Amino acid sequence: MTRLLLSLLLAANALSAQGAGHSPSRDVDAKEIAASQLDRIGAEVDRDLAFTDERGYPYQLRQLFPGKQPVVLMLGYYSCPAMCGQVLDAAFKALSDVDLQPGQDYRILSVSVDPRETAETAKNRKSHFLHRLAKTGGDDAWRVLVGDDTNIKKLTETVGFNYYWSDITKQYAHPPSLIFLTPEGKVSRAIVNTTFDASDLHLALVEASNGKLGTLWDQVRLNCLTFDSRTNSYSLTAMTLMRVGGAITVVVLGIMIWVMLRKDRRQPAAAIA
Fold it and tell me: Mind listing the pLDDT tens digit for each residue in 37-94?
C-alpha cells in the first residue's frame, strides 16, 4: 500500500515539473497518465520523423525502426532543472543492474520536447550522464535528439506523452516515464515514475523484444505476472492468482483421475491372477 501511494503521489506531482504556481486547469492526475499511456500500447511511431542527434547529424527514426532490438524511449528536456535529470539518473542506475547489454540487446533514445534546444545542448546532456550507465557500449547505444515542434508533437502524441509549457513556472510540465518500443517501433510498455526497479525494466525489455531476449524463466514470469499501472510494476494480481489456481486445480484433478484409472485397471488383472 505504501508503494502504491508513493507511486501515485510521484506521478501526480511530476506534472508540475517541480514548479509551484502552475495552472491547475492543465493538471493531469496519475490515473489520467496511466490511461493515456495504456491507450497507446501498440501504437507505431512514424519512421519518417526527423531530428538531429548530439553529434549534429540528421537522424530519422527509420535508423532505428525496424531494427533488431527494443528501444527505451526517454522524453523530457535537457535544460530541465531537476526532474528530467532525476529520471535519467534513476533509469541508468536500474539499467546498470539489468542483465542485458545496451547496443547488443537494446538501444536508448532520448528526445527533447523543447524545440529551442540544440545539438550542443544534447551533447552536453550526454557527456554529463553517460558515465552513470555502468555498461559497456552505452555511447553507441544511446542517441540524444533535438528537433522542431512538428516532429516532437507527432512523436509525443503517438506514444501518449502529454506535456505543456507553463508561462508561470517557465518550465515544461510532463510525466516522468520510460516508454518501451518494440524493434518495429510499436509502444510495448510505459513505466511512469521517478525511480525504477531493475527487475521491472528487465521484464519490460524482454516483453518489448517479442520474446527474443531473456530466458525461459523470464517468459514464465511474464505469463504469470501482470503489469499494474497503479504501482508501475509487474506483479501478481487477483485475476492472475485465480488463473494459476485454476491451472493447478486442473493438473491435480488430472493426476487424480490418472491414478484412479491405473488402480481400476490393476484390480481386474489381480482378480484374474
Answer: 667 889 999 999 999 999 999 999 999 999 999 999 999 999 998 899 999 999 999 9
For the chain, first and last CA: distance in Å?
Answer: 65
Contacts of 130 (CB under 8 A, 6+ apart): 138, 139, 142
Q: Is 211 left (phi over 0), alpha (psi -120 to 50) or beta?
A: left
The rounded distance, in Å, linking the Cα atoms of 180 and 205 is: 7
Nearest to 83 by CA among 196, 177, 169: 177
Burial of 110-132, coded b for 16+ CB within 10 Å and e otherwise, reads bbbbbeebebebbbbbbeebeeb
Overall average pLDDT of the 98-110 stretch: 96
Contact 71, 181 (CB under 8 A): yes
What is the reported pTM? 0.74
Residues in the chain: 273
Please count the structural domains in the chain.
1
CATH number (domain holding residue 200): 3.40.30.10
- Three cell numbers written together for 112: 527533447
Residue 264 lies in a domain: no
